[in-house]
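protien #1 (seq + structre)
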Amino acid sequence: MRYGLLLAGLVALAAPAQAETGHADPRSVYVTMVLQAFAAKVECPGMDVAYQDLVTKAKEMNLPDGTTEQVRKAIAFMHTGGKMGERQSDELMTEVAVATTATDLDQRRLGMQSWCDTQKTRLAGFVRAKN
């Protein structure tokens, strides 16, 4: 990964904040969920994202309106080198970087096929087979 050192540093910065509270920030959890759903769409043959279900989940998690679109734009911006999406707040961009690193590590650890199989269960309702 091109930004490996940067992302590793971001993970190191985010870990103490999570350790202090004993749990992850709801938005960070949501960012990871959305990133993994879009990664499954790209990396796993035959998978698609149920965008409206992600919006519903954000509401269930009491996240502000527009969170799903902000996260989508941040992910697109980061993963296309700024060619798509839009830069979002530094905090959100950091959350996307941390989620990207965690997802990349999971994919390497499990292997892509096992990771895809795992996502079908973990993200049931947010990813589905393409029609």
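ok now protien #2
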Amino acid sequence: MAKWLTWTINLVILSALIVACGALYLQSASKKAVILSCSSELFDRQAQAEDGRYHLLVDVLFSAGNAQINYRYFNLDGSSAGMILMQGAVQSMAPNSMTYNVSVKTKTESDQVEKKHWPEHMKYLSYISSLHFSESGRHNLSLEILESDASKDYAVVLFQPSNTVCGCRVVNSRI
């Protein structure tokens, strides 16, 4: 009986160590940063010729529960058309839908370009986030991974509420 008791205690200790190591691994894996470098072309169908065409670059960083999303807009000649930087926290990540929900606490908009010259997408993003900030002090957004290929470090991401789909280079991820 003593051998059986010793064997049972050793098995319980070993099981506890395995569970503890697994918990530590999951905790360290969940702290791994997600870095995406995304791009898209924007077209305003109502604008004349090239006046309504822009390039959008979105840099995404999720690290230790914090979130930073930098929307950078460029004219076709490469000159800046504006920038919106949002910072906040990752509220949740739904693994089954691969959706990151972010609560934005601060927003910085570029003042290098007059608002009337901003791309329509930038005007909308500024408007909707300002509306949310005035109502609740926060702006909620989501990033849904529509498709990804880890072997090519590539993902297709839907940004909401701006309803923007971007191709993204996965720089670092747990996607």
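The CA atoms of residues 67 and 121 lie 21 Å apart.
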